[in-house]
């Protein structure tokens, strides 16, 4: 078994691809959704529960982990895999996005960013080199480049200037990256919603050469239409044999449309965050389990789900747990939502492999488009969503 | 298989007893510790996790369940077993203790108690009959009598008056109880720390006749010595072939001493509450995992524990989770603490069966008495605590 990091295409349908991502920590079928494990835990989940949903790779946050418990401490404790009991692949973001979100708490210069911790106000500095070193200390399977991006909308000159600085930083990140078999570093394509700038960014990154390419600076308020048109302009420029990761996206509908546009990897806090706020994803859209109409409903959240919540408990029980502010509510519903996201991705992947993506996508969208659906109407799926 | 409710002695050591509690919902080896599932969930635990610790019976709270989601609603949803996914035996308290704890929010009369909900201030009334009916609606395997007890210390006249009212209520509870094969109702012995009053209470209850007897009104601030002396005066008076349940107790040391005095069943929030506040039970006493000395400690909480926290994670990881206020901290530590309590009870039970209770008790106490122990010094146990 080779431990080289690579993505191998298995099937294609239009621009959508099904493949396998081979890493030092195991192989992941793509397209894949990465649950977010911000500070070394996927919130409210044991790692056994994460595994049971079918997740193949999880995400960790450099910004949060460098502040607590600290990158050197994680290294001393055997790395993030051992720390959080996830021997599979881990992708760590670079901290760039979180630091930019700090607003007045951070100061940007050409060399990097100085910022104050949101936890205790302590001063910290991230540079392309430091971010890369931290991710090495965490033993990230996939290291992300440290980048900078302005909030949208922004003037094209601002976006261009920012993108070009991120490209200079990307070269420094590559310099600092310790190449090892089965490990990877992804460059992050910036350029806002400007097709020309995106193309320039792809050229800069492919000129440096990375194991994979991420599309950053989207899902920041520009709307789905602009996000999709930016993907339309960008993904065809990325080397076809490299994995493509759309950062921080998104809704089930976002995922489907992005896979159709050639994206292989996703992460998003939606399913986990929704799980803590009583919002359940189903084949027919979302349910708010705090709603009184669930109080005496003996049915599971979804008849198509094999998660612990759906196989053992009623909507009424979940409703009760959230009304009573019991920890088990977020535990069960996070589990359910992650199971839904993984089932969605498996369904899309199977459809690509079987050559039926268009039909599957049409079926998914028809389900989502049903208005005023009642749970009674949720039928056995025409196209089984669980392969 | 008979479905009669009964307790059958298997072995005896002094006044300590090992036996089996046969119920409509399964058989439980005794002595047994019942995890507290206040409002239809053992906080921060899935029922699979509760099962994995070896728990055989859990407790639910009438007061909390009648307020939310409501007893009739639980009945409509198939009963508490189905609602919370615990097909095994469930004991429900009567609501008496919680209502008495409300202080100025409740008004006591000879017929019952009127009180205001701590959730929304709504007015409610509990009587012996209503409490018994509610527990029937919940489908409790073991129903407790509705009683009243003053906080200790109190004047003997006050205790006597209160106890006698509880005995009159006990007769009304028995009248209201629907007897079914494999289901039970326990009378609650009151009388504070007055041996004579306890004896009078036992006579009153055995005169009515219950499937089991609970010792109430202890562990309310009187201290271990008075609790043990009260047990010494009380348990010999209880019919030997009935199960005996000491309510709301306690520390590992309390449990051991009470088993030695003839108690078979216990419940207490200590292991679950401690699990949410970073306190870990071990063979050598408790650890506070928020303490900085655990920050880089790669060892498990206990080398003798087979819970998920100990088999997969370091103290450093648990420390990190509590420092970061992550839900997984309470999840893992509640699991660990319940596993410890069940292991403790299995060890005590095995020692009774094997005729080695004195040696086992001496070993347990020697471990607990070690001061300034460091985790390094935790040896392989001389007497294996896990049978």
From TrEMBL, chains A, B:
Q: Which residues are catalytic?
A: 93 (proton acceptor), 267 (nucleophile)
Gene Ontology terms: biological process? tRNA queuosine(34) biosynthetic process
* Positions of Zn(2+) binding: 305, 307, 310, 336
Q: Does the keyword RNA-binding apply?
A: no
| Residue numbers binding substrate | 93-97, 147, 190, 217
Q: Name one GO cellular component term.
A: cytosol
- The segment annotated RNA binding runs over 248-254, 272-276
Which keywords appear in this protein's UniProt record, sorted alphabetically? Answer: Glycosyltransferase, Metal-binding, Queuosine biosynthesis, Transferase, tRNA processing, Zinc
Superkingdom, natural source: Bacteria
CC cofactor: Zn(2+)
* Cofactor info, note text: Binds 1 zinc ion per subunit.
For the protein in the UniProt heading, the enzyme class is transferase
Pathway annotation? tRNA modification; tRNA-queuosine biosynthesis
Q: Name one Pfam family in it.
A: TGT
Summarize the protein's role: Catalyzes the base-exchange of a guanine (G) residue with the queuine precursor 7-aminomethyl-7-deazaguanine (PreQ1) at position 34 (anticodon wobble position) in tRNAs with GU(N) anticodons (tRNA-Asp, -Asn, -His and -Tyr). Catalysis occurs through a double-displacement mechanism. The nucleophile active site attacks the C1' of nucleotide 34 to detach the guanine base from the RNA, forming a covalent enzyme-RNA intermediate. The proton acceptor active site deprotonates the incoming PreQ1, allowing a nucleophilic attack on the C1' of the ribose to form the product.
Fill in the subunit field for this protein. Answer: Homodimer. Within each dimer, one monomer is responsible for RNA recognition and catalysis, while the other monomer binds to the replacement base PreQ1.
The protein's name in its UniProt record: Queuine tRNA-ribosyltransferase
Question: Which species expresses this protein natively?
Answer: Gluconacetobacter tumulicola
Q: What is the lineage of its organism?
A: Bacteria, Pseudomonadati, Pseudomonadota, Alphaproteobacteria, Acetobacterales
Gene from which the chain derives: tgt
